[in-house]
Amino acid sequence: MTRPPNPIEVRFEPMTEASLEAVVAVERQAHPHPWQRRHFADCLESAYPCQMLLAGDALLGYFVGMKGFEEVHLLNITVAPSYQRQGWARVMLDALATWARTQGVQWLWLEARTGNTRAIHVYKAQGFRTVGTRRAYYPTADGQREDAVVMSRKLDAPV
Fold first, then answer.
1. DSSP bridge pairs for 150
2. pLDDT in tens, the chain (159 residues)
């Protein structure tokens, strides 16, 4: 397991056009159906909240949200494979929730593959509740489709 540089100096930085090469490299390592560079570029162009979590020069992970009326939809949250299972997803979810509160947002929403039990466990531990299912939402390696669990979190509710 790779650890961030010591001493650990973790920080958030906005994702930029210049950082997309590193972000896309992590995305390809982490996901069987990764976002393409154009997806991230479109989010940057739309001024969505796109943040990277860094320790030194190491990209630990990133998230992309989309603000709506009184809600933020988490579009992508990824922890680099070398840094998974170290609590970084929780750090990023907390940062997203903090930012969302400053925007007057009351709800966070997301979808997760039904088979991604690790992510669902993290989301539930962060106060998200299952509210529905999107049938055949995600593509699979064998050309089929996988359902998505729709989850939400009310920001004024205790975690």
1. 111, 132
2. 566 555 678 999 999 999 999 999 999 999 989 999 999 999 999 999 999 999 999 999 999 999 999 999 999 999 999 999 999 999 999 999 999 999 999 999 999 999 999 999 999 999 999 999 999 999 888 889 999 999 999 998 666
Residue 64 belongs to domain with CATH number:
3.40.630.30
- Distances, alpha carbon 43 to alpha carbons 20, 80, 81, 94, in Å: 11, 20, 23, 20
Question: Do the domain assignments include residue 134?
Answer: yes
Give me the number of domains the chain comprises.
Answer: 1
Buried/exposed code over 36-75 (b: 16+ C-beta within 10 A; e: otherwise): eeeebeebbeeebbbbbbbbeebbbbbbbbebeeebbbbb
Q: What is the DSSP letter of 79?
A: E
154: which residues sit within 8 A by CB, 6+ positions away? 106, 107, 127
Could you list the residue range(s) of the whole structural domain that residue 38 is in? 10-154
Here the tokens at position 34 are 């990764």
What SS3 class is residue 50? strand
- pTM comes to 0.91
- The answer to whether residue 117 sits within a structural domain is yes
